[in-house]
Specification:
single chain, 4 helices, alpha+beta, 5-stranded mixed sheet, 27% strand
């Protein structure tokens, strides 16, 4: 019985986070909402059908938040097929970072950053154009 408990516990653990820089430097974004955010990239992980980019975010004196930016695999693959381009890992990170900035600008307050930032097909088109990928 104890063996099954540990097996269930092991299955619930999310995939490990990888890709974090050796030195995590806080960076700042002054959002159109009027808030100034500090963020640190914590890494990314593959989950069922998506890649999740994790950022530690603070604004003012509020407690840090773990903010997730989610790139669904189907959205990325559909875009790659349509444009006959394979996005590199650095380009995918750039997409996640721009999506984070857009959320900073569009969400009314830091408390709204608790919800995951999901990149949709239309978002991806605009972000890729901003980054000058194609």
């Amino acid at each position: 019985m104890l063996g099954r408990f540990f097996e269930r516990l092991r299955r619930r653990q999310p995939a490990p986070v990888t890709g974090a820089p050796p030195v995590r430097r806080p960076k700042t974004w002054s959002a159109r909402s009027g808030y100034v955010y500090q963020y640190v990239f914590e890494g990314h992980r593959q989950r069922a059908g998506e890649t999740e980019y994790l950022f530690q975010v603070t604004s003012g004196r509020e407690a840090p938040l773990a903010v997730r930016v989610v790139l669904p695999d189907d959205v990325i693959q559909e875009w790659e097929r349509a444009h006959e381009v394979t996005l590199r890992s650095s380009e995918r990170y750039g997409i996640a970072k721009i999506a984070l900035f857009q959320a900073f600008d569009e969400r009314a307050s830091p408390a709204r950053m608790r919800a995951a930032v999901r990149v949709r097909r239309a978002d991806l088109e605009a972000i890729v154009e901003t980054l000058g990928i194609v």
